[in-house]
Amino acid sequence: MKFFVDTAEIDAIAELNDLGMVDGVTTNPSLILKSGRDILEVTKEICDLVDGPVSAEVVALGADEMIAEGRKLAEIAENIVVKLPLTWDGLKACKVLSSEGKMLNVTLCFSANQALLAAKAGATFISPFIGRLDDIHIDGMDLIEEIRTIYDNYGYETEILAASIRSVNHVKECALIGADVVTAPPDVIKKLAGHPLTNAGLDQFMKDWAKTGQKIL
Ligand code: G3P
Fold first, then answer.
1. Which of 10, 105, 111, 157 is deepest in the core (most CB within 10 A)?
2. Closest residue to atom 4 of ligand 1, CA basis
3. pLDDT for residue 120
4. Which residues pair with 126 in a beta bridge?
5. Whose CA is nearest to atom 1 of ligand 1?
6. pLDDT confidence tier of residue 32, bands split at 50, 70 and 90
């Protein structure tokens, strides 16, 4: 499974990238706001740092303006993925930009039917938002399962990019279902390494090692 990092914070991306944990990056207008950076500048820096796909989101609502913004964002670097909202206009823009060979990430997906339309419009990635469905008492993981089934039924190549990931269990469940990619905040990715029994076991080993009086170096 591929790991994308859901942030526009350069330092956090760099730390995970050095460990080989970054297969791509996703951003959105809220994450750009949080970074306090100019979208074009920070996106270029991320693209220079990371080899994989880097999603940058349009902010227009009409198809023509989305297409214009998408073309401008795509000029930043070869690994740009233009991120479009899952609206009728977003689907129109997806169709046009995919015919130009651009990579597209269709975002704010909350239903399997929306995901089906995005695949038909030529999306490279579909971003179902798990956490935001959980927030309204709908199991976001059911949506991942439904999209996996539908895409497999018809051989759609659009990759399922599970988004709005809030917990380590979200990551595990996406991996079990077979999402192609998860995009998670840096702290969630780092938490995947943690386990209380690892900490307790290491603590005991350190105590016993101190009693041996030995050194390795
Ligand atoms: O990739 C989309 C993601 O940033 C949304 O996450 O936690 O704001 O629902 P969240």
1. 105
2. 164
3. 98
4. 106, 160
5. 163
6. very high
Q: Does residue 83 have an active-site annotation?
A: yes
Report the C-alpha gap between 74 and 22 in whole angstroms: 20
Distance 163 CA to ligand 1 centre (A): 6
What pLDDT, in 10s, does the model give residues 164-183? Answer: 999 999 999 999 999 999 99
Closest approach atom of ligand 1 to CA 131: 9
Q: Both tokens of residue 190? A: 């780092």
Average pLDDT estimate for 135-157:
98
How far is it, in rounded angstroms, from Cα 9 to Cα 35? Answer: 6
Torsion angles phi and psi, residue 60, rounded to 5:
-75, 160
DSSP track, 40-93: HHHHHHHHHH-SS-EEEE---SSHHHHHHHHHHHHTS-TTEEEEEESSHHHHHH
Average pLDDT over residues 114-139: 98
State in Å: Cα 211 to ligand 1 middle.
48
In CATH, the number for domain 2-212 is 3.20.20.70
Measure 186 CA to ligand 1 centroid, in angstroms. 12
**How close are the terminal C-alpha atoms of the chain, in Å?**
38
